[in-house]
C-alpha cells in the first residue's frame, strides 16, 4: 500500500494501486437485496426515521446524491426515480459526490458514523462495492469535488488537488476561512479550471491549471457565500453573504460582465447554477423563492453546450479585453429594471439593477439547491426531502408553473 504525506496534514492510501480508467463506466447500480449489491447488512427503510444530511447534483444535473443517517442514495432527475441506495448500520454520510453517472463516488462520513469519520474521504466504487482509495486529514473535510482527471478536497483553510489515477498530490491552495467548503470546477476536459475563495474577504481565486495561470477577482465587499463556473470554466457567477447581488465574471481577465439582484433584504444564497447554453442563471436562497435571470453574455458559436470548444480562452480574453461589447449583448429588457433607471447616477445603485425574469415560490423554512432541467425547466432538491420540477416561459417570464413534486425522503432534519 502506498502512503503519501501532504505537509503532515493528510494521508492518502490507494487501495489496490491505481484507479483504472476502465473504472469510469456508466451503469445503473442494483437496489439492496440484489445479489450484486455485495452488502450483507439488511436494508433499512424510511420508517426508521432516516435523517437527510446532504444533497448535491452531479456535474450535468441529471442526478443528485443524498447523504443520510443510514448511508447514501442516488436519484435520477428525468424521469424522477431512486436509482440506488446503500444502507449501513455503522452510520451515515455528510458528503456524497458523484462523478457524472458513473460508479465512482466520494464519501465523507457524518459525525455519528463509527466507520468513516468526517476527516476522511473514501473513494468508493459502487460497481465493486468497495473502497478503492482514501484520504485522511487532521481536520474535518468541508467539501469534495470531482473531475474525470482529479479529486479536490476542501478543508476550512486549505484545498488539495489530487490526480484521479494514482491519487498523487498535484496542487495545494490556501484560502480564507471557508467553513462552507466553497469550491467549483470546470468539467470540460479541454479546460481545467478551479474557483475558490482567496485569502481576502470577498475575493475569488481562479486557477487555470491548463494555462498555468492564477487570477484573483475582487467579487464582493462581504465574504463569498456561493459560486459556480460554466462547464468550460470561462465564466464565474458569485454571491456574497449579503445575498442581494449575483455577479458574473470573465475568469481570464476578471472583468465583471453582468450584475443581477435577488432582492434588497439580506438572504443566505443556497445555490447558483448556469444553464448549459449560458442563457440563464438560477438562484435559490433561504427566502423560499427561486429566481431565474436572463444573461446578456455573448456565446461564440451557435450552441455552447454542443460545441463549447469553439469558445477558446484566447478568443474570450481578446474579446473581453478589447471591448465589453464583444461579450455583453445589448439589453433586451428580459430582466426587469427600475423605471427610475434613467436617474441611476443620482439614485442608489439597486434602482438600476437587473431583477429576476422568472420566479417560483417554495416553503421558506427549507433550503433548496436549484439547477436547470431540460426544455426551460428548473429542478430543485430540498433539505426536507422534497423534489420539485417547474417550467418558465422563456419569452414572458413571470411566475413559473409547477410540473412535478416528489417527497423522496420523509424527514424533518436539516443538513449542517
From TrEMBL:
InterPro entries: PROPPIN, WD40/YVTN_repeat-like_dom_sf, WD40_repeat_dom_sf, WD40_rpt. Its main location: membrane. Transmembrane segments: none annotated. One of its GO terms (cellular component) is phagophore assembly site membrane. Residues 1-45 are annotated as: Disordered. It is found in: Preautophagosomal structure membrane. This is Autophagy-related protein 18d. It comes from Solanum lycopersicum.
Amino acid at each position: 500500500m502506498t502512503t503519501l504525506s501532504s505537509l503532515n496534514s493528510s494521508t492518502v492510501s490507494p487501495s489496490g494501486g491505481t484507479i483504472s480508467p476502465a473504472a469510469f463506466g456508466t451503469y445503473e447500480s442494483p437496489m439492496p437485496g440484489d445479489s450484486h449489491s455485495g452488502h450483507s447488512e439488511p436494508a433499512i427503510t424510511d420508517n426508521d426515521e432516516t435523517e437527510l444530511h446532504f444533497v448535491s447534483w452531479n456535474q450535468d444535473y441529471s442526478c443528485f446524491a443524498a447523504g443520510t443517517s443510514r448511508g447514501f442514495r442516488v436519484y435520477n432527475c428525468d424521469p424522477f426515480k431512486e436509482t440506488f441506495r446503500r444502507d449501513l448500520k455503522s452510520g451515515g454520510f455528510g458528503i456524497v459526490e458523484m462523478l457524472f453517472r458513473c460508479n465512482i463516488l466520494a464519501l465523507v462520513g457524518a459525525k455519528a458514523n463509527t466507520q468513516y469519520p468526517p476527516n476522511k474521504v473514501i473513494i468508493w466504487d459502487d460497481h465493486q462495492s468497495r473502497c478503492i482509495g482514501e484520504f485522511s486529514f487532521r481536520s474535518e473535510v468541508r467539501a469534495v469535488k470531482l473531475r474525470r482527471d482529479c479529486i479536490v478536497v476542501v478543508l476550512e483553510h486549505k484545498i488539495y488537488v489530487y490526480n484521479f489515477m494514482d491519487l498523487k498530490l498535484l496542487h495545494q491552495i490556501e484560502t480564507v476561512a471557508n467553513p462552507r467548503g466553497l469550491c467549483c470546477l470546470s468539467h470540460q476536459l479541454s479546460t481545467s479550471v478551479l474557483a475558490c475563495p482567496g485569502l481576502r474577504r470577498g475575493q475569488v481565486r481562479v486557477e487555470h491549471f491548463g494555462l498555468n495561470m492564477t487570477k484573483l477577482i475582487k467579487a464582493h465587499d462581504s465574504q463569498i457565500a456561493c459560486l459556480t463556473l460554466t462547464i468550460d470554466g470561462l465564466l464565474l457567477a458569485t454571491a456574497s453573504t449579503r445575498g442581494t447581488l449575483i455577479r458574473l465574471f470573465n475568469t481570464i481577465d476578471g472583468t465583471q460582465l453582468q450584475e443581477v439582484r435577488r432582492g434588497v433584504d439580506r438572504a443566505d444564497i443556497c445555490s447558483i447554477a448556469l444553464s448549459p447554453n449560458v442563457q440563464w442563471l438560477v438562484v435559490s436562497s433561504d427566502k423560499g423563492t427561486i429566481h431565474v435571470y436572463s444573461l446578456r453574455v455573448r456565446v461564440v458559436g451557435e450552441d455552447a453546450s454542443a460545441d463549447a470548444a469553439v469558445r477558446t480562452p484566447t478568443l474570450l480574453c481578446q474579446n473581453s479585453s478589447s471591448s465589453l461589447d464583444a461579450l455583453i449583448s445589448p439589453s433586451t429588457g428580459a430582466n426587469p429594471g427600475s423605471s427610475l433607471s434613467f436617474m441611476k447616477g443620482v439614485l442608489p445603485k439597486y434602482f438600476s439593477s437587473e431583477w429576476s425574469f422568472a420566479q417560483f415560490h417554495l416553503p421558506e423554512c427549507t433550503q433548496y439547491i436549484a439547477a436547470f432541467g431540460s426544455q426551460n425547466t428548473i429542478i430543485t432538491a430540498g433539505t426536507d426531502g422534497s423534489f420539485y420540477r417547474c417550467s418558465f416561459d422563456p419569452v414572458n417570464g413571470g411566475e413559473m408553473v409547477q410540473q412535478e413534486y416528489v417527497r423522496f425522503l420523509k424527514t424533518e432534519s436539516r443538513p449542517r
